[in-house]
Amino acid sequence: xxxxxxxxxxxxxxxxxxxxxxxxxxxxxxxxxxxxxxxxxxxxxxxxxxxxxxxxxxxxxxxxxxxxxxxxxxxxxxxxxxxxxxxxxxxxxxxxxxxxxxxxxxxxxxxxxxxxxxxxxxxxxxxxxxxxxxxxxxxxxxxxxxxxxxxxxxxxxxxxxxxxxxxxxxxxxxxxxxxxxxxxxxxxxxxxxxxxxxxxxxxxxxxxxxxxxxxxxxxxxxxxxxxxxxxxxxxxxxxxxxxxxxxxxxxxxxxxxxxxxxxxxxxxxxx
Amino acid sequence: xxxxxxxxxxxxxxxxxxxxxxxxxxxxxxxxxxxxxxxxxxxxxxxxxxxxxxxxxxxxxxxxxxxxxxxxxxxxxxxxxxxxxxxxxxxxxxxxxxxxxxxxxxxxxxxxxxxxxxxxxxxxxxxxxxxxxxxxxxxxxxxxxxxxxxxxxxxxxxxxxxxxxxxxxxxxxxxxxxxxxxxxxxxxxxxxxxxxxxxxxxxxxxxxxxxxxxxxxxxxxxxxxxxxxxxxxxxxxxxxxxxxxxxxxxxxxxxxxxxxxxxxxxxxxxx
Lengths: 271, 271
Description:
The structure is a homodimer. By secondary structure, the first copy, chain A, is of the alpha/beta class. Chain A has one domain: Rossmann fold. Helices cover 42% and strands 12% of the residues of chain A. Chain A has a 5-stranded parallel beta sheet with strand order 2-3-1-4-5, with helices on both faces. The longest helix of chain A is centred in the first third of the chain and has 25 residues, at 30-54. The termini of chain A are far apart. At the A-B interface, α2, β2, α8, α9 and α10 of A face α2, β2, α8, α9 and α10 of B.
């Protein structure tokens, strides 16, 4: 699978018409996706062990998408392949009073992965140019400065060894309607049903415009944005696993050299 | 499998002679363990979803054991079954200068799981009555007061809804010798080889005495210790999955009631 097709080329425009959330390029069916997905998940675990052992680089995965787009599902079914000890997941919710006394990147910076670690952001600093903009939580004079702040912040991370991959889970409003209905009507899913999501749904086009601006302005060479067709969960999982393998394969990962003279260490008797 | 056999009954003595690290009670072979292990892992994921959805209880899993006993392996192969978003893993290393300016439970308290979460301690506050005692990092007058502090601290957590399960991964010195040798001689494992582990190995009986005291004094009704035979990795994984299913099954977990009048919410058209 060629993952470049999902990448928003730095400096290019994004037209949602070019992105079909139902598309499954490179894989025809759920059945055909099973084997390559499994192979990717095994490869991700190997790459993560080298990332951890080497402890020179880090990986930051940013997940964004409309409600029900599958952020939680991707974390469970794709990132679930990683050794959990090397993963740090942060779900960004409504900022706390303390967080609001700081700049918008303060809480985000604290959550970034250290060397050797995989960090996953379930929502992120991008909410500060998405919900903040659409819901009018800050004036344009404030949120419009943030794209540049985000790019500079992500460059700081990249220069410090953090590989950044940002993924937009792209679903259609029709698919969302089905998923919200399932949440409303299925007993084991009802705990996820939030009436607040319905209000957000009525602002769909405003969000798509806000996403367009964010992805156009913040897809950079050091922190690219990918738009992944996500109406079909099996395709979404496969495509994201491919993007992650592709990203991690280019990090120069390897096991570090062992301690000097390792072969000469005798295992002593237990005392 | 009857997991009670692994539990150190509160107030009872522990004689290491009663615990064979090679034992596999209730399961004869690796092949026979595969199916019940898989069933347990699936059950753990269900229970965790209810824990998360309900958000009234938390689960704290404390893992202790000698070097190479399999703490990392258990986290990967058993706790790996959990949805990573609901898991918080903390590896306790040598305390930082800032941590050392506080009491020994300060850094531990910060790492405890909130409601709905599974917390995993890879090593823990027990190191403060183990390595600290054996390596003489604090005088007896200091470490000997800590058993009572630990019990009071764990009672505080339990009274706040945290279910605590503490697991000692029990291996023999012979098994450790094999595993250290494998780390020394296998290229992909050499990054885990630490000469410092060899010194600790020469203090084996001092550690077993320190573990004995800790497990006898701190296995309580609200935070029991389990000694799990761990020479065979497949048995260790199966036994621990059983202990976790047993613990979580007794927490009264269930999905919370949905928002009032959920059926009457209409899914609006996307705006």
